[in-house]
Amino acid sequence: MDLDVFERICVKAKDETKGNCRFGLYNWTEPTLHSRLNELIAIANRHAIPCGISSNLNHYYDWSLLKSVDLCNFTITVSGFTQKTYAINHKGGRIEPVLKNLVDISSILGDSPSYKNIQVRYLVHRDNKHEVSSFKHLCDRLGLAFSVYHAYYMPIDRMFEGLEGVPDGLDYIEYSPKLVRGAIGDYRTSKCALRDGQVVLDVDGNFGVCCVESPSAPQIANFLDTPFRDMQKARFASELCTKCIDQGINVLATYAQYEPQSVQDAVNSSLPFDLKSLI
Predict the structure, then answer these.
(1) Domain 1-151 has CATH 3.20.20.70
(2) pLDDT digit string (tens) for 46-73?
(3) Which helix (H) or strand (E) holds 222?
């Protein structure tokens, strides 16, 4: 994304939300591939907009560039400690640069105020539970926060497929759409944190419906040319959004964490294992 476009987005977003916004530079992308990532974050900092990134750490990066910026969050997604296990979910990924980058981040950014905002997020599935403790041990040694989440189908088209059966190659994921819908029964909600509280923009500032749709999906319009209220109306009225709510996919995609406790309990009790037992 061009720096000027990004700054204009900052100004408009802050104005239309009365300052109640934060940015994440990563949806379906790898931010460390951007040659001016630190400058983008610095622009958000200058406008007093909290800004974070998420990375799979498969690419080497000059982490010292982030020492002078303020990151409200830095999420690192992993799914295994050895190459054989890691590659199951992070298809085509390499664990070697991930581990080296973690050590480098600890060494270079360890004394940075933003270091406390870095979190390693382990995506758990059937075939990688046995390596959770090894990764947690490494993070503990490096002083990095560690958490576990269920791996799930992506993008949303695969979730719809998963309501009827298991798409090819995804049988290792236990947090499946079919399982979750069976757990929630007829429960549905029109609320969705991914839609109500998030807006996804591409490199040109165009917005789509949701963060879980494929990045190749058609965009609706440009954020800079569209009033915030009109943008939200278009997203809420989309065919994708209607279908997602009707099928209960919005509950699945948010791990049911915003739903009544009874719904959360139903989903959790339907799973073959408890995440908390792994850490």
Answers:
(1) yes
(2) 999 999 999 999 999 999 999 999 999 9
(3) strand 221-222
